[in-house]
Structure formats: structure tokens, C-alpha cells
Amino acid sequence: MLDAALRAEILRLYHAEHWRVGTIARQLCVHHSTVERVLSAAGVERAAQRPRRRSLIDPYLAFITETLQRYPTLTAARLYDMVKARGYPGGPDNFRHRIAALRPRRPAEAYLRLRTLPGEQAQADWGHFGTVTFGHGERPLMGFFMVLSYSRQPFLRFYPNARLASLVHAHVAAFTAWGGVARTILYDNMKSVVLERRGDAMRFHPTLLALAAHYHFEPRPVAVARGNEKGRVERLIRFARDSFFAARRFRDLDDLNAQAREWCATRAAERRWPQDKRLSVAEAFEAERALLLALPDNPFPSEERVTVTVGKTPYVRYDGNDYSVPHDCVGRSLCVLATLECVRVLDGLRVLATHRRSFERGAQIEDPAHLEALVAAKRGARAHRALDRLHAAAPSVEALFSAAAARGDHLATLTRGLIALLDTHGPAPLQRAIAAALDHDAAHLGGVCHFIDQQRPEPTLPLALPDDPRLRAQQVRPHDLADYEQLHPNEADSHDHDEGAPGG
User: Fold this and answer.
1) Mean pLDDT, rounded, for 51-58
2) Who's near 119: CB < 8 A, 6+ residues apart?
3) CA distances from 10 to 4, 39, 49, 51 (A)
4) What predicted TM-score, i.e. pTM, was given to this entire model?
5) pLDDT tier at 498, thresholds 50, 70, 90
6) I need a labelling partner for 324 at 20 to 30 A (CA). Which of 13, 36, 162, 309 fits?
7) Which letter, b or e, does each residue of 58-96 get, where b requires 16 or more Cβ atoms within 10 Å of its Cβ?
8) Helices and strands, counts by H and E, the chain
């Protein structure tokens, strides 16, 4: 409390001596806000307390004010460029400070506190809680919140994404936890709820409509940019950030969800009920539970269905990871049904593979049976290859390849030649020819061809005579071969003479 003497001195110095607020504060050793408070209590306006010095922006205030009236959301940077082009010599920092004070303010809006009937309404929304690591990959950590508007009974579950499949799964889990369904559920205008919206005309996601039809509730998106219409779930998200998630430690997603269930049943449910402080949220929920819509006999299927195509390798790609399938499915289109726990691959109604769900990035999830079947099929196919045909037909071919490699021969050319010989002559003649080539140190393709040609029988040319009786009755007498020797009578003598010449 200021004494009367100090207040009187402040007023005297201001009105009689015409001191400024800062001068009074320094001379009397008080804070300038104390001087301003005394002057305001005496009826002196704040604008009169501190005479404003002339500013560089003063000549442009009329233009700035008019422009902001026409374009209230125009950025200060764009407005600075416009004023700069008109001759403003000042810098941008002070200009932005002055524009913040000149910009027209949106008038404060009063909100009506709404009360809902028991079992009438619930509110749902997503909250982002950073990232979570799965193996070598990271995923966004998304929390799904749903709260009953009457009792404030919460539901919280965390997911590695905010896709439609997670939204459906969260609804089913919330309804199961509460043992009933509210008649109306409020949402933001998220794409998994509203595909298109033009004012009050909306096109809902067909999966959400199927979910609503199954549980008999009405989905109702709030107005665009009007999050206050679902303020209960917004406050629940803020409360969960401070009361539950702050400094929370958890091993994995399952551990975090287990802790979230416990928090909803204890800390969040033990709060005082806003409408009657004598009751807790849990007690209000017990009174509301009987007025919720009953659950159907069967829960809504929450599996995500995706059509995939198997490439050249026996894997299907889903959510950034590869899952193995039988090798005979290569090149076909299959269906993937995925939950948070497992991934199933179907061909029509036939289940081809079942794997655990992985939230890593680029991981390969394999069934050992699929790999063993692929290896066995590859070995069976390898037995029919041309190279293995050589080994099966001619066991000596391995020694031939070794000898040819030692000689520096081209093995690919040798292989093609041997395969051609196998196709034309068969396995037994080829084996004998290779063995003979190895025995005579002729381990090359030419040697094999030579020895396989030696096994070929002499060709016989059939002689077809005309059907003439005179030819058939004619006798052919063979000639004496001595007549041909007379053509070179001295050939033998010349050889003998040549052989004896050196001796003579």
C-alpha cells in the first residue's frame, strides 16, 4: 500500500511540474507501473501519461488503417512491402510491432454452457504425442480420446497412426469398455469421417457409416474451425497430457495402453463430477451406463482390407513392410487383412499366410515354411537346367571342365558345344567321347567331337533302280582291281628307289 504522502507527491510532480512518468519513477525510486497506477486512479488516461514522440510511421497510418480494415488477415511482411514502396524509411522490426497494435481485433465471443442428457452424446478426437520407435523405424504416436459428455467418463488408447482402421478399432474398443454406445458422437472434420463438406452438405466415409449403422449411433461433425463445440474431449486431451503422459515411461505400445486403461479407471474416473461435486466421474458414469444403447451381438470387423500384387519375389508389401507368401503366388493379386496384432494374406476365402503385425520400416516378416518350399522348388528346377543335364548324362564332364580350365579354354563355349552334342547324340555316346578325350589328353570340344564322330556308323546309301525288266535281268560283272594298278606301274619301284637312294 502506498502512503498518502507518496501519492500526493506523484500527483504534484505530474500536474504542477509536468514531469514525465519515467522521471517521477526515477526520482522517487519507485517502479513506473506504480506511478501509472496512481495517475490512472486519479483519472489520468494512459495515453496522456506518456506523450508519444513523433514516429516515422505516422504519415502512413491512414493508409495502414484503411488497408487493415479491408484485409484484416494481411501479413505484416506484405503490408511492410506496400508501405516501403510508398516511401516508408523505417525498418521492418518496429513496423511489425506497430502493426500488431493497429490490427483490428476479433471481438470476444461468449459461449453458452451446454448440458447433455445421460447417454445422449459422446465426443471423439485424436491427439499427437510425438513418435515411438519400433525396431529401426519410427511411427507417430497418436492417442484416441472419447468421452461421454454427461458423465465425463474417458476412454484413451494409443495407436501408431490415425488411419481409418485405427479409428474403427478404437470405436469398438471404447464401446466394449463402456458396455454401451452414446446416441450421438461429435467429431472434427477429419478425412476418415467426412470425405467432403460444403457448408451443411457432407459426404461421410462409407466405412464410418457402416460402423454407425452397426452400433446405431449418429455421427455428427462440428462446424469447421469450431473446436469449442466439442470442448469436453479437448479438455480431456489437455488433462491427459499433464496428468498421464508427462514423464511417462513405457516399454512398448501394449504397456502404454495398459497404463492408459488403468489411468482411465482410477485417476481420471476419480475426479469430481463437474455438475455435482459430491459425486465422482465414475459414480456419474454408473448412473449413465444404463441409458447407453445396447451393444450388438457381434462386434464390427475392425480389420483393414487392402488389395496387393505380388511381384517377382514371394512377398506382399503392406504398411512399409514385406510379408512372405507361398512362392506359387508370384504375380497374383491378393487381399491383405490387417489388425494391430496380425496380418493375414488371402486368396479369395483361402488364407495363404498369417504373420505378426510389424510397425517397423522396411522389415521382412517371413514364414520359414514359405522359404523352405521355395528352396525345394528351386532345387527341383535346377535339376532340369542344361548344365545339370550334362552332369547327370556324363559324369566325366566335371573332369573335362577341370582340364579345360587348366588349358585356359572358354568354358561357356565348351558348355554350349557339349549341350548340343547331348541333344544330337544322347548321353551314352557323349560319356564315351568325353572319356576317350580325357584318355588321349584332348580335353577340348574338338577332341570330344572327334571321338563322338568315330562312334557314328558308316552311312549306307540305298540304290533305287527304275522299274525296268531289262535292267533287272542284266548281269553286272565286277572288274578286277588289278586293272587300276596298271595306271601307276612304277609307283612301288619309285618308292623302293627313293628309300634306297641314301645308301647308294
Assistant:
1) 72
2) 148, 150, 180, 182, 183, 288, 291, 292, 293
3) 10, 8, 12, 17
4) 0.58
5) very low
6) 162
7) eebeeebeebbeeeeeeebeebbeebeeeebeeeeeebe
8) 21, 16
Instruction: Give the three-state DSSP class for 132.
Output: strand
Residue 194 C-alpha cell reads as 467426412
Average pLDDT over every residue of 80-108: 84
The CATH code belonging to domain 121-289 is 3.30.420.10
- Domain chopping of the chain, boundaries: 4-102, 121-289, 304-379, 383-454
H/E stretch holding 364 reads strand 364-365
3-class SS letters over 202-255: EEECHHHHHHHHHHCCEEEECCCCCHHHHHHHHHHHHHHHHHHHCCCCCCCHHH
Decide if 391 contacts 398 (C-beta within 8 A): yes
Length, in residues, of the chain: 504
Are the beta carbons of 300 and 214 closer than 8 angstroms?
yes
Q: Which helix (H) or strand (E) holds 204?
A: strand 201-204
**342-347 vs 350-356, strand pairing mode:** antiparallel
Residue type at 161 in one-letter notation: N
Q: Per-residue b/e over 2-40, b at no fewer than 16 CB within 10 Å?
A: eeeeebeebbebbeeeebebeebbeeeeeebebbbebbe
Range scoring the smallest mean pLDDT among 27-41, 116-130, 234-248: 27-41
Cell of residue 423, nine digits: 541333344
Cell numbers at 101, concatenated: 497494435
